[in-house]
């Protein structure tokens, strides 16, 4: 009985001789350019001077506070009180997961840690807006708006001539309030106007870009005629090719050889006369003759 009692006492003493680390606020949300307090409390059983470290977790793990010194990016704008870390005038780059580690070498369990997540809230900034100055009637169009700095991410609204646009079922456009896009399937003259975009989130007042003029114009008459003429010419060439092919297949385009050039039958006893058949590409024939000779010899079959 006595050995069992001694074993329990030893095990209990080992359990007590350990460092404990905790935080009173595991998630901190704070506005940009204010001070962030990342709390860390610890308790050791034997070690009066434990080693305190702070690390930040991102793509890798980087030191914030090590060997009683701050890393360069935190030097002069952070302080340690006990194990609690305070970062002054935080920015969006300071957002992330921080880990407080306390090492007490004299304790049986000599390492304890606590994690604190910092979210830096950023109000809306003036978004960048992409609006072309002019576009032709009937073409598709997409306008872009983006605020890359706000946190939480901004939502967007478009205005035309200072009136908010609403994407109803019969509207000639569609909007994505999360991506900031405004899409037109086919613009008309009525879509001409001054367009601007507004970004907003729960942190601060909305911000808007400068309104830009969009003009929807008709195609120039000379361009319309050029497109129509080119289309007609292509259609005519295609039609002629189809007609020639049909004629060739039906035998309508084959020409008879002159009687003087025919080769007599061997039974007649006459010597065959020399035929002077035209060869494609001869110098004396025209491009049209070459075309017909190729057809006669079945070159396009």
Automatic annotation (TrEMBL):
UniProt entry keywords in alphabetical sequence: Membrane, Signal, Transmembrane, Transmembrane helix
Transmembrane helix keyword on record: yes
Region span, Disordered: 255-285
Signal sequence, renumbered to the chain: 1-18
All residue ranges annotated as the Ig-like domain in the record: 3-117, 124-215
Record flagged with keyword Phosphoprotein: no
InterPro entries linked to this entry: Ig-like_dom (IPR007110), Ig-like_dom_sf (IPR036179), Ig-like_fold (IPR013783), Ig_sub (IPR003599), Ig_sub2 (IPR003598), Ig_V-set (IPR013106), JAM2 (IPR042625)
One Pfam family per UniProt: Ig_3
Gene3D superfamilies xref list: Immunoglobulins (2.60.40.10)
TM stretches of this protein: 223-247
Protein origin, superkingdom: Eukaryota
PANTHER family: JUNCTIONAL ADHESION MOLECULE 2 PRECURSOR, JUNCTIONAL ADHESION MOLECULE B
Protein's name in the database: Ig-like domain-containing protein
């Amino acid at each position: 009985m006595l050995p069992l009692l001694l074993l329990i006492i030893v095990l209990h003493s080992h359990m007590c001789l350990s460092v404990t680390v905790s935080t009173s606020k595991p998630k901190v949300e704070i506005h940009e350019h204010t001070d962030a307090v990342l709390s860390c409390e610890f308790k050791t059983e034997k070690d009066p001077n434990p080693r305190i470290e702070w690390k930040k977790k991102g793509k890798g793990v980087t030191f914030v506070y090590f060997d009683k010194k701050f890393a360069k990016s935190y030097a002069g704008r952070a302080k340690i009180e006990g194990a609690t870390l305070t970062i002054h005038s935080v920015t969006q780059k300071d957002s992330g997961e921080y880990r407080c580690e306390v090492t007490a070498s004299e304790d049986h369990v000599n390492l304890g840690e606590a994690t604190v997540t910092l979210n830096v809230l950023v109000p809306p900034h003036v978004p960048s807006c992409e609006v072309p100055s002019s576009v032709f009637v009937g073409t598709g169009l997409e306008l872009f708006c983006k605020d890359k700095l706000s946190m939480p991410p901004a939502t967007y609204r478009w205005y035309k001539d200072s009136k908010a646009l609403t994407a109803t079922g019969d509207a000639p456009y569609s909007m994505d309030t999360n991506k900031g896009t405004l899409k037109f399937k086919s613009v008309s003259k009525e879509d001409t106007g001054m367009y601007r975009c507004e970004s907003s989130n729960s942190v601060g007042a909305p911000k808007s870009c400068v309104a830009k003029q969009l003009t929807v114009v008709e195609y120039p008459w000379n361009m319309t005629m050029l497109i129509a003429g080119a289309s007609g010419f292509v259609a005519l060439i295609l039609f002629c090719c189809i007609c020639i092919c049909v004629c060739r297949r039906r035998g309508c385009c084959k020409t008879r050889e002159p009687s003087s050039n025919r080769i007599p039958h061997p039974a007649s006893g006459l010597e065959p006369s020399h035929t002077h058949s035209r060869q494609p590409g001869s110098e004396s024939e025209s491009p049209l003759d070459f075309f017909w000779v190729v057809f006669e010899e079945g070159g396009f079959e």
